[in-house]
Design a protein that fits this description.
The complex is a heterodimer of chains A (about 200) and B (about 475).
Chain A lengths: L6 H10 L8 E2 L3 H8 L4 E7 L5 H4 L2 E5 L2 H14 L6 E7 L5 E10 L3 E8 L3 H5 L2 E5 L4 H10 L3 H4 L3 H20 L4 E10 L2 E4 L2 E4 L1
Antiparallel strand pairs in A: 1-4, 2-3, 2-4, 5-6, 5-8, 6-7, 8-9, 8-10
Chain B lengths: L18 H4 L3 E5 L8 H12 L4 E5 L6 E2 L2 E2 L13 E4 L6 H10 L5 E3 L10 H13 L4 E2 L5 E4 L4 E2 L13 E8 L2 H13 L4 E6 L8 H10 L5 E6 L5 H11 L5 E5 L13 H5 L2 H11 L3 E2 L3 H13 L8 E5 L2 H13 L9 H10 L10 E2 L6 H13 L5 E5 L9 H13 L4 E4 L4 H12 L4 E2 L2 H21 L1
Parallel strand pairs in B: 1-2, 1-5, 5-6, 6-7, 10-11, 10-12, 12-13, 13-14, 15-16, 15-17, 17-18, 18-19
Antiparallel strand pairs in B: 3-4, 8-9, 8-11
The chains are: A alpha+beta (about 200), B alpha/beta (about 475).
Amino acid sequence: MGELLDYVSAYNLMKKYGINSIESKYVKSADEAIKFSKGRPIVLKGITKKAIHKTKSGLLELDLLTSDQIKGAFLRLSKKAQKFKPYKILAQPMTKQGIEIIMGGKVDSQFGKMILLGLGGIYVETFKDFALRVCPITRYDAKKMLEQLKSKKVIAPDQKSEKMIEEVLLKISKLLVENNIQELDLNPLILHDGTYDAVDIRILK
Amino acid sequence: MVHMVKRSTANNHDFADLTHIFNPRSVAIIGASEKPGKVGQVIMQNYMDAGFQGALYPVNINAGEKISGYKAYKSVLDIRKEIDLVVIAIPAAGVPNVLEECGKAKANGAVIVSGGFAEVGAADLEEKIKQISKKYKMPFIGPNCLGVMDPRARIDTLFLPTYKIERPKIGGVSFVSQSGSVGSSTLDLISAEGFGLSRFISYGNATVVDEVDILHFLAKDKNTKVIVYYLEGAKRGREFIEVAKEVTKSKPVVIIKGGITETGATAAHSHTASLAGSYESYSAVFRQFGMTEAHELEELIYFAKIFDTQPLVTGNRVAVITNGGGHGVLATDAIYQNGLTFPQLTKESQKELRRRMPPIVNIALPMDVGGEADYKRFGDALEVLSTDQNVDAIMMIALFQTPGADEKLVDAVVNFNNGKKKPLVVVSTGSSYTQSHTKLMESAGVPVYESPSAAAKALAALISYSRYREKAV
């Protein structure tokens, strides 16, 4: 199986393809995290190869505003992450609330690179509402992927958001085709205020 | 479960030449026999029953002068005439030698019915016959398969006695099955349906001729209008996509995937990989490239018959006519559950219907023409609704338990269907009396379903494929 790409490298790859991702930085200490926050509420995440599910593993601390909150969360995370060594702690500004979706990619042993769109976040496993296509996809394919979802109306309530999601899918398809990637998870990718941010990126080389 | 053997993908887009296998002028049957119960006897008998017009050469190492009245040969090398197709039905261990002889005899192709190769772990035996095929450039179907049947060319390599399985009439549907058992049982079902068969192909282990070759052949086959496919796995995934993309531009492909539950799946490292397993990938490919996926064997038949008989339509507004109230309610549910909708009838057709229908008939959809409705009333409703510009397709529920429904109604429906203005599906639920009438309709090209939900599924499949065609071509 492939190797997990370093988070910040993955973040840079997203940037290269014009896929909005939330600002991300590794922090080695609580002080560094406080400095990163610049008064904004932030999120701290334990990054490790050994756990895909950050919420389940308790490697996620949300909505940290004051220095005390940040310091406490940093200590808690460091403690919990011990059993997933080696690990790093990533700081991100807190995202706006929105609809959580998943976009992803994988290499199928028969058909090669495939792209996925679905209802994301904690709903991924519960509803298994997703659409899959072989890369590269066309605009028509992107439209049909969205149409196929039961949660289409939730994810894309209007034409503008439909178009936005189609654009992102086309960018990801291009990224998958042009790079040596075994698996990709953008989960969640949060849709908010007419725009979006990939909040968690996982790439297996 | 068919064992997979990798085929070199270095030779992209190279398709085996299957013309001789499918349209042979001469056939040698190796293992032919007169002994009842022998596979070679059944195949021989089937060829005779099918009325094959070309030269037939029974071959058996223990043969005397004749087998079933035909001059018999001890070896294929003794024939000394051109052989288009060799059917091999002898135990696996003897197949490599015999195949080698076929190569020397310059046979153009073979069907290896025998089992006992990779599917039971004898991968090296299978590799051996693959190499022989390569050496003589002689493609073969199988091993471990039923082979081919073509009622038009009167060929039949199936080792299933004709009294045990009905042979369908000649038509436009070609049915391909990796598995022999799904193949033969579904073939039996098809023969009970009104639509006819173009070709039947069961290709087993796909050692040389695989799904890509077969789809490519059927795409070009003028006699094939609709392809029905039972697939366990595609060996050349990317080429499968290429050929699927081509074929669905001109012909509907109805496909069912066997083996959708994964046993040996490795633990996934991402959500994407855990959601998108091997079956999901197949399903996505079918959808993306215009193949119609069936989830049950019955659906293969539902979809095959609508594609075979009805025109394409992209609109989803379905008018329902019924002579039973409850069935109208069920049909309404089925219509909406399958993404279809009722049309808004034009003022003109409402007026015309009001003029032609008795006062007890409410001019609304579903249109209940009443339990006493006869062929005339049904005919009037069909005529008016089919000319309404807001109606894309018609579902007609004809319950033959009612006093007014009889053979005259059958005639009216068949006549209307022959005009083929808009797609029509008929729903008739019932036993012997009903079935005697539905058979008549089906054999005249009207797709009849036992329930509104089956009919609605079929319409939805027709519309979905029609929309794909509109975008793809």
